[in-house]
Amino acid sequence: MRTHTDAHDLRHHGDAEVRDADLTDLAVNVRAGTPPAWLRERIAGSLAGVAAYPDGRAARAAIARRHGLPVERVLLTAGAAEAFVLLARALTVRHPLVVHPQFTEPEAALRDAGHEVARLLLREENGFRLDPAAVPDAADLVMIGNPTNPTSVLHPAADLAELARPGRLLVVDEAFMDAVPDEPEALAARTDVPGLVVLRSLTKTWGLAGLRIGYVLAEPETVEALERAQPLWPVSTPALAAAEACMEPAALKEAEQAAHLLATERAHLLAGLAEFEEVRVVAAAEATFVLVHVRRGAEVRERLRGLGFAARRGDTFPGLGPGWLRLAVRDRVTTNRFLQALDQALAMVGD
Ligand SMILES: Cc1ncc(COP(=O)(O)O)c(C=O)c1O
Quick count: other Cβ atoms within 10 Å of Cβ 215? Predict the structure, then answer.
């Protein structure tokens, strides 16, 4: 394995923080109360057809329609996670660069495919914002998340588009974009940005982490190259049924309403966190989580576990240290309980 070349365990994910533990989950960013009943029914209804091999045409067309794109620009994948591996294995890339801190799996996949991966570390002093000029010209694949996990920063679409140039793949992971009301900084529907590859996931908003369904939006030649690297039938019939259902107008409306509610709940969490002078918050949060810094973060996290709450450790993200914790936005009651627990945890740890 090439994924432990430095202090960061790139293969640590939030699910490890809640596995086999009876804790309130602030570590995994899947929307609470999902999948909704109507979606479970659609998935269950698809089981009658599982004797046949999956036929992805309808789901692919539905995704293309939702983004106003031709079907040739759409590739269905077993979650965004499959797309990271396909990108790492199938494309001719010499100088990949990952903008950190961000979800670590893309870098892990690139390293496992034999690439040397350069990193651009965004800094807290700059609000973890990207300066497009800081990306070296030599990078022929640039990987960035928008909004970014774990900083929750939403980069302006114009800044990202500025990174595009001939001979470069610009990969934008929009796994959390559908949690941003109206998606103002989305690049998904753009066809005028050369080398653009957008990744989307249905995991978070729809509570489908266990089903494995996501998609890639890219130039047809890139889609073809990635498709050739896929095994046959990579997306199951129930996952295809879910993808089709989640593209329907009523589903899009539900996602939009959830995004607006999330913004209110996040404002409540941020206001509560602002009361703690021991806590530094990345306040420009636009995703389903917020990133905070506390002194003696590992101890605070342990104390929180003792009080029944799982927070995501931040120290496995390149560019972050042990003081950082990522907290999922939850409903007001859960957040209030959490803020009380945080107060206690901080008091226990002391100065
Ligand atoms: C930023 C980001 N992208 C992609 C993924 C993977 O999504 P999927 O479940 O679609 O593979 C995750 C999962 O945590 C994520 O945080």
Answer: 29
Class of domain 37-248: alpha beta
pLDDT of residue 20: 78
The preferred substitution site among 25, 203, 205 for testing ligand 1, maximizing ligand atoms within 8 Å of CB, is 203
* Closest by Cα among 337, 39, 21, 17 to 207: 39
CATH 3.90.1150.10 fits 14-33+251-349, yes or no: yes
pTM of the model: 0.97
Residue 4 has pLDDT above 60, yes or no: no
Q: For the segment 252-276, what is each residue's pLDDT rounded down to a tens digit? A: 999 999 999 999 999 999 999 999 9
Max CA distance (Å), the chain: 62
Out of 10, 98, 201, mutate this one to test ligand 1's pocket (max ligand atoms within 8 Å of CB): namely 201
